[in-house]
Amino acid sequence: MVGRSNSDRQSRQGVRQNLFGHSERKRLSSKSMRAGSIYRKRILSAFLLGSFLLIIGQTVMIMNNRETTNFFLRTDLPERLFHNTHFSSGRPTAAGDEHRSDSYNVTRRTPSRRHQEHEKALSCASPIVGVRVRVFYVSETQSGGSRKYIQDLIRHYSLYGIEFHRLSSKAAALEATDKFMENDILLVQYLLYTDFTFDDIYDLVETYRLRLVVPIHDMYFLSDESLEYEYDPIIHSADQGKKLSAKQRLFLEKADHIIFPSAYIYDVFREAIELKSMVVVPHIDQKLYRRTYIPALKANINIGIITEASHTKGLGLLKKLYRYGRRKGTDRVKFFVYSKYDNKGEPNVFVRGEYMENDIYRKLKQDKVHGLLFLNNYPETYSYALTKGINSGLPILYTNIGAIADRVAAENNTAKYIATDNTDVTQKFDSLLTFIRKHAGLGEKDQTLSVLEKENLVEIPVFYDSLFFRSALDIINCVQNNHNRFSKHFAEIHRHIQPYAIFFPQFHPIPENNINFYEGYTDMTNLVAAKLEDPSLLTPLKNLLGFYDLMQNNEIIPRQIQVAKSYGIAGFAIYYYWFSDNSVSQKNMVFQEVIDRFFETVLKDFSVFFVYCNEAWTKNVAFGTHKGGYTIANNYTAENIRMNMLNLVKYFKHQNYRKIGNRPLFFLHHPHEMTDTEIQLLKAVGDSVMRENGFYGIELIVDGREGTYPGFPGYYLHANYKSPKSTVFMKTSTRPQHIDYKAYVRKFLPKEEKLGDNSSTINSVFTNFDNTVRFYAHDEDRQFEGVGNKAMFMTRTQGRKVALFKEFLDVQLVKYSQKSDPISQIFLINAWNEWGEQMVLEPSNEEGFTYLEAFQERLLLAPLSDSVHRSASSRLGGRGIHS
Can you tell me the distance from the alpha carbon of 613 to that of 624, in angstroms, rounded to the nearest whole number? Predict the structure, then answer.
């Protein structure tokens, strides 16, 4: 949440004291209002004149105190980039942090703030306005469709970082006032059983500039004001006067959105009021399966009632049919009630009790139900139960009123769905029984019910995505605007610093992960399950990416490239997995389909290279375990290395694959898995194969976290969470262990990167590290062998903040001011999309574009020398860095 000043807090305290005090207000006369308006205009004029003179004076002072710099710094950058950051002769620190000075001192010009831009105008950092969206909902109803409506919103959108807070009373609202941010959502279902009034809601919306959303469930907001706080079945009746009181009208006119789940209820309200904010949007609900299923007949015809047994739901009509069924013979018609019902001696009625969502399909099948009843005394406005009734495939007898009538009519099956006006209910019930006898046994081999028992496939109306999030088009336009604004700056910077983000090509099921973890496993599917238990986990930004499968959605990779490029990323360093031995799929290259798709994408000037993840997956806790025994590993013989190199040639020949001096870059991620002789063999065979294919050789670059490798350029990829250095970890007695991000940046980093010359050639940063998703198992069938959720292997980062990430960037980027060799100018960000370990720079629902914008800010302010030596020109042969 954005921090607030003391004056803001005091202002809010004053507001809280006056909130809900509308009953004591005195209305100003029109004369006094006009006088107040004239007075305010005079005050405003004087304020504007004083502000103008103050700005002129500050501008003169700043121009006279401008400092000089020894580094190439783009002076035409927007001043917004300097917001909330202190500059000194030392490292920039977050506002309020202590001044720090170390060996990475950089002299910077203190910029003027006279042209600072408003943060919201540029930021793509959130779904709506730069902070996480919160929904405050007014509701005290504990049952029925209104409760399910809220539960479905929470169940689905909490996965994407949306916060939901219930306001059951004025006291709860007063406690929440410190949380309110402009454009938060106030969702009002009812005022029933609360102490809120329409005036109270109006005050909250006006005072805190909240967005008012009103989902309509019945005729409550058309009811007499005397029913504002107490329930009466009349709120379900469409026969009310449909005349709004002044308070009700003002309340609805204030709403940003009034949501009607069906055209029926929309038309009812439109007779009383018609507003542009009124919209028809069906509820979040199960996907419809249109089919017919009737079990074979044996001794009885079984009729099910899956709606609430109450007066409004036609209890009197049901009792009439219970008696009518008895006259046909106790063993001929049985009724199964799937709700609370006090059965007072009806021998043909069997109460099964309330059901849990998908469990109804199992119960219907278990009881061999042949048909369903949907009888109502009052019209429904939607009916979740009807969705389940349609999906069951069973014939239905229904009261021909309200939304149920409209929804059934849309099914276009008048034989299967039998309507009654309730006066002829017994005759129409006979028609239902006749249909059942005629079609009994139809569709028994259909497996849809079995699918519905296991999978809750829901349909989310796009309206709700647009309510909680920016549209994909808005986000993409924002990204493109950012690109248009800074692309020239990035082009200049990339002559000296080449930022590459690690790209993880998983996120689609593969046989190896099916064996290692469970059928259909990806880090993304595990993230969905883990997020339900741990709300702190980051998730991909809805409407831009969502929980993606890189093989199912062709738009994801192009969007990832577009976003990365627009924020200063020069390319992706793609993890490459090749094994000489793979007994699971018999394939050497894993994730090949995604990598092929990546190279088929139009990359333009976005470059890539591979990071060879050569670590064995066999008996590796990071990749799951399997009792059956298998091999996924590498044997580094000359023949195997040659096979690997020949596989790489087609990618190396792509115009966007990064080459230096006609040598494709190839990073070796786990050199500790190889002997020195095997590394030398990898280089020798690689050179030979590349020369055979028109290159000058291969540029092998070796990870330096666990040792030095003389003769090879090196890189150091943070976070080195496996390091034994005590400064990295917080002192905890239980697992998971925790990386202290602050200690890592300020203590561990300066010491560790000086271990060897090659390890400091290419520098890096990491945004976060949390591998709980990778080690998370969310049900008994998916437990990892012998260790449950593998907490013993988990590592998490604590204390990470954007300010510390910026500090990390400054420490690393300042090293590039004197780098001239094209290899050493590469800068690695770990990672772009490692969601299984929470190392992500791509936008998330929880943090938006915050870390990506922080990276862009520090990159644009990176100190570059006025003249960079071109000592590598002879080695390049005049070809340039992309040749």
Answer: 17
Please, is 731 exposed, middle or buried when counting C-beta atoms within 10 Å of its C-beta (0-12, 13-18, 19+)? exposed
Tokens of 556: 């994801």
User: 3-class DSSP state for residue 663?
Assistant: strand
Amino acid letter for position 42: R
CA 63 to chain centre: 45
Angle at 395 between CA 151 and CA 218, to 5 degrees: 40
Between CA 173 and CA 176 the distance in angstroms is 5
Task: Name the one residue in this structure whose structure tokens are 């490798």.
Answer: 709
Q: Are 216 and 201 in contact (CB under 8 A)?
A: no
Kindly list the averaged pLDDT for each block of 10 residues, start to end, along the chain of length 883.
45 56 41 45 58 51 37 29 28 32 32 32 44 81 84 90 91 90 91 88 93 91 60 56 79 95 93 94 90 88 92 88 77 88 88 84 92 93 94 94 92 87 93 94 75 74 88 88 93 95 96 87 91 90 91 94 96 97 95 96 93 89 62 95 98 97 97 94 97 97 85 88 56 68 85 51 92 71 44 79 95 89 94 95 92 95 60 32 31
Task: Give CA–CA dist 429/305, Å, rounded.
Answer: 13
The SS3 call for residue 769 is coil
Rounded CA separation 827/843 (Å): 20
d(CA 823, CA 761): 8
Contact predicate 44/38, CB 8 Å: no
Q: Which residue has the tokens 């005022």?
A: 191
Helix segments in 65-197, DSSP class H: 119-122, 144-157, 170-176
CA dist 495 and 279 (Å) reads: 52
What does 608-660 look like in DSSP terms, one character per residue? EEEEE-----TT-GGG---TT---EE----HHHHHHHHHHHHHHHTSTTB-EE
* SS3 category, 605: coil
Cα 343 to Cα 153, 351, 385, 593, 785, distances in angstroms? 35, 7, 21, 60, 49
CA angle 568–569–570, rounded 5-degree value: 110
Q: At what angle do helices 402-409 and 263-270 cross, to 10 degrees?
A: 130
In this structure, the chain runs to a length of 883
- The answer to whether residues 424 and 398 touch, using CB atoms and an 8 Å cutoff, is no
- Render pLDDT for 492-548 as a digit per residue (tens, 0 to 9): 999 999 999 999 999 999 999 888 888 889 999 999 988 988 888 999 998 899 999
CB distance 776 to 793 below 8 Å: no
Pairing of strands 211-215, 185-188: parallel
Tens digits of residue pLDDT in 217-264? 888 888 665 455 455 555 556 555 567 888 889 999 999 999 999 999
| Cα angle for residues 382, 211, 206 (degrees, 5° grid) | 130
Expressed in angstroms, the distance from the first to the final Cα of the chain is 46
What is the token pair recorded at 542? 């809805």
Q: Which of 378, 362, 114, 142 is nearest to 240 (CA)?
A: 378
* Residue in 706, 539, 512 with CA at minimum distance from that of residue 618: 512
If you search the block for the tokens 């094209």, which residue do you land on?
A: 822
Q: Which of 64, 59, 50, 54 is nearest to 112 (CA)?
A: 59
Q: Give dist(CA 619, CA 622) in Å, integer.
A: 9
- 3-state class of 50 per DSSP? helix
Q: Could you give the angle at the alpha carbon of 359 between the alpha carbons of 356 and 362, nearest 5°? A: 160
Q: Where do runs of H (alpha helix) occur along 353-499?
A: 359-366, 384-392, 402-409, 425-439, 448-454, 462-468, 472-493
Which residues make Cβ contacts (< 8 Å) with residue 403, sequence separation at least 6?
Answer: 261, 262, 263, 264, 265, 379, 380, 381, 382, 383
Q: Of the candidates 299, 327, 306, 287, which has an alpha carbon nearest to the alpha carbon of residue 394?
A: 306
- Residue 151 carries which side chain, given as an amino acid letter? Q
